[in-house]
Amino acid sequence: MTTRATRSPRRRTVIALMVVLAVIGGFVVRLVDIQIVNASDHIAEQSKLANGTKIPLQGTRGDIVDTDGSVLATSTLVYDVNIDPQLAAQGLKKTDAAGKVVRGADGKPEMIAWPELAARIAPVTGQSVDDVIAIVEDAVAADPGSRWARVKRYVSTETYRELAALGLPFLTFEAVPSRTYPDGAVAGNVLGFLNSDGDALEGVEQLQNSCLQATSGELRYLRGRDGVIIPGTETEKPAVDGGTLQLTIDSDLQWYMQQLISEESTRYGADWGGIIVMEVATGKIRAFAETDAVDPNDPGASDSADRGSRLARFSYEPGSTYKPVTAATVIEKGGATHLSSVLVPSRKVFDNGAVINDSEQHATEQMTLTGGLVRSSNVAMSEFGSLVDAQTRYDYLTKFGVGQKTALNWSGEPHTGFSLEPQDWDNQTFYTTTFGQAFTVTATQVASVYQTIANGGVRMPAQLVESCTKSDGTVVTPDLPEPVRVIKESTADEVSLMLENVFAQGTLADDIRIDGYRMAGKTGTAQISDGKGGYKKNLYFTSLVGYAPAEDPQYVVLTVFDEPKKQRMSSANRSVFKKAMTQVLKHYRIMPSESETPLLPLTQ
């Protein structure tokens, strides 16, 4: 039988349990109210007392690599160190080893004053303590409500980590990409460079900026008055890294060609020199070397004129290197062959009054078209060129690229071409256009002419960019013009054989011969405009361009000198051409020719 005494303790237990549950329930209700029902109101209330912070997130600019993937340009991160002057001036609450706030006898938190905190920062940044103190004091003096000042720009990742480890809530860090070119000046005139603000100013850095440039993001959050981030206020828009730009340049070959052209330009006293190596089957440029090469790590060390690419921008009258274009034209439209002949004196006054001279005196000869090329006779090419009208020659020169932009789309590429339309050619111009005068081209366009002939008459667009690989892995190839058939394959073969004879029978045969290889090509000694309608006296733009093996062409090599002083004619280019072509054949392991050049008659 249950008594009153036994019921009382049980009742007290039940009542106590109910009280406990009621208290817990109250806490739960309040917690739900704070964190769910009125969470936004709570954060909004805190935000009235908080500092909104927006931190830009920097993506990384894409790498530039050569045809084999070797890095030519890359980005690393450095950091700008910033400070909240208002927060820093208040000092920092002192804490013990357990992280608890240390309080004084009056119960108030003990504070670490700003000068003492500055003394922690200064040794890490390499500044004096007084300088760091002054950053905050000057900012507060100028604006008591100031929330931003810069402590130091461009500190290393190591310095950034040391500063972050100090745990100072008033310090913030902004990542800044820094561009580095591991190989220095190798391909520097192709790569270009960035300014101190990260803007692309030259070369493919500028031309392909849409591939390389990163897209910035941002991080937003709220800080309380004590500098602590308020939970739940963070939002992030991620940054997107730039793409990887792959060039057609072979950096090993490029390095060699840069050393070579620098040495040879000095040897012959040229204002500048250049070498282009172009793949016959594709138009891809494997080397684009010139003097003086700019180091993109320090472009300010170079003269402004040396920071771009003269091979892409400098225009000149090509001279004798365009005589093969005249040969191709008269074969296709004038009924000529390599055996066709004309009577050639060393000086001729034509019926229209034009006077044409050869560079050297010689007896009057019945010279073949082959002989006109081998002996580089202006008179012979003028005679053969007159087999077709001016419009026809204009059309063929245009088909070979004169007056057309190259596929490089290089910034600052000059407007090249004819000074006059064919109907306006005067008596002299009618003939001088047969040997590369009265129009201008760039070195790239000259290389393209010989690529076209070597490639059976099909011009491939000159190409420096292989692809852009986006950060998501998407590979984008350049939008290039379609290949163009400029001349018939049979015409190209006939012109190529005549160009072989230039090397086999011409005056430079012994100087440029590479044992075991058949080669084809042409020299050019072009007069330089004086800017007054005439030409500079005894100063020339010299070139030597050719390809090998001539029976199965693989690579075109073009060498140029601007105003060589120690050897003023194109003979200055023999040494550099031979060395450059020899290196190309070795580098790409091109097999020697299995036959000799068939020799063609030069006269009849």
Q: What is the count of β-strands?
A: 26
Low-confidence stretches: none
Distance between the termini: 148 Å
- Rg, nearest Å: 38 Å
Which structural category fits the helices and strands?
alpha+beta
Q: Report the major sheet.
A: 7 strands, mixed
Describe the fold and architecture.
- The chain is an alpha+beta fold and 604 residues long.
- The chain has 20 helices and 26 strands.
- The strands form 8 sheets. Strands 2, 3, 6, 7, 10, 21 and 22 form a 7-stranded mixed beta sheet that branches.
- A hairpin with a 5-residue loop joins strand 15 and strand 16 (355-357).
- The radius of gyration is 38 Å and the shape is elongated.
- The chain starts with a helix and ends in a 17-residue tail after the last helix.
Index terms:
5-stranded antiparallel sheet; 7-stranded mixed sheet; alpha+beta; 604 residues; single chain
